[in-house]
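Re: Re: ligand-bound prediction request (bumping)

Still looking for help on this. To restate: I need the protein modeled with adenosine-5'-triphosphate bound, output as structure tokens. Inputs repeated here so nobody has to scroll up.
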Amino acid sequence: MEERKALRGTRDLFGTEIALWQKIEAIAQAHLTRARFTEVRTPILEATELFARGIGEATDIVGKEMYSFVDRGDRPVTLRPEGTAGVVRAAIEHKWCGPGVVQKLWYRGAMFRYERPQAGRQRQFHQLGIEVLGSDDPRADAEAIALAYDLLQALGLSELVVDVNSVGTPADRQTYRQALVDYFGAHQDLFDDEARDRLARNPLRLLDSKDPQMAALAAAAPNILEYLGAESQAHFAQVQAYLTALAVPYRLNPRLVRGLDYYTRTAFEIQSNALGAQSAVCGGGRYDNLIGELGGPPTPAIGWAMGLERLVLLLGEPPAPPPLHAYIVARGSLAAPFSLKVAQTLRAAGLTVDLDLTQAKLDKQLKRAAASGALAAIVLGDDEAQREVLQLKWLQTGDRQEVTLAASIPLLHGAP
Ligand code: ATP
Ligand code: MG
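Reply:
Sorry for the wait, this slipped through. Here it is.
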């Protein structure tokens, strides 16, 4: 028989690794809720055109990474490759944007990109991100970056590097783009097909090529910061001043351009030195024109997304499971219904309780109780069921005591 396996670039998440995902999500949720961000859950499937227009036709994502298909109603649809376009679509649809309104939103969920799978790079992966809609105050940029940095710190990550840049406005970029075309155009003999394609379609992307020869070329390329207009410059200076005031250790990186077309002014990325090749854990930036371009009211905005697989790789060690208060072992026709009732009552009282469902011999079930790590085994036979009492066996010491169901609750709660 053919062996069935999860598709390449997708994986099952289970066991102790799941505890790590839950911990990361719980810490993130608490962190963002304290900053008054509210969660939005948008559909995984959206119209292809949303991403093509939102992310940009010339990007790698739209050009070659999307899972797109035509549905049974002949509609071109795509599994979302990122979260911003869907949140912006929702904001326009539900009229969350308007003059003087600032929305602070966060999301989490699966994203899909047809990439070459490797450590920290999947075809189905998971992001957690924020979007701040309606403010172009440099404080919005600084708050967003600091929230990401502080969250990564709260998760226990160290060796974090925050790269920041300003990619200016489309007008700033027009002159810069020409300077890049002139510079790189003179070195085309070194180009492979992909670089040639980028030069023609999206020359800014030549700046963050991972190819060593291209990176060396990029190092001497014109600096975008010298092409910013006065307003972009002043905005970026203010963002940096706020980051300094917040003690976010950032590094100016004029070659950081990011792979999505919608960014304007602030762009940033957070890397972990501990990650090796796939070092970016968080990326984001300002996108002041996207909402207008997608048909909404002109609304400045900034956001970021973190890759949860990479956080899981970095954190590695799963958290200790919560204590198991009791493991119920039961045998007998009267003990069977009583065991269900005991489990239900103790759980309702806030205790963590496992119920052995095998009906095996009691000593066999007791072995499983000991292996479960429970504080106590609750042993139930027909005799106990008839008298409505429990045999509590403390698994650390082996001590036994007979108690009523009601009396067992404070004993189990009070156990070390
Ligand atoms: P990279 O340079 O690693 O491809 P990116 O610029 O494509 O990243 P973004 O689109 O900004 O990434 O997404 C934000 C974050 O999502 C990244 O910093 C990374 O942590 C994570 N991420 C992106 N693509 C993947 C993937 N295929 N598998 C796992 N995580 C990913
Ligand atoms: Mg990528």
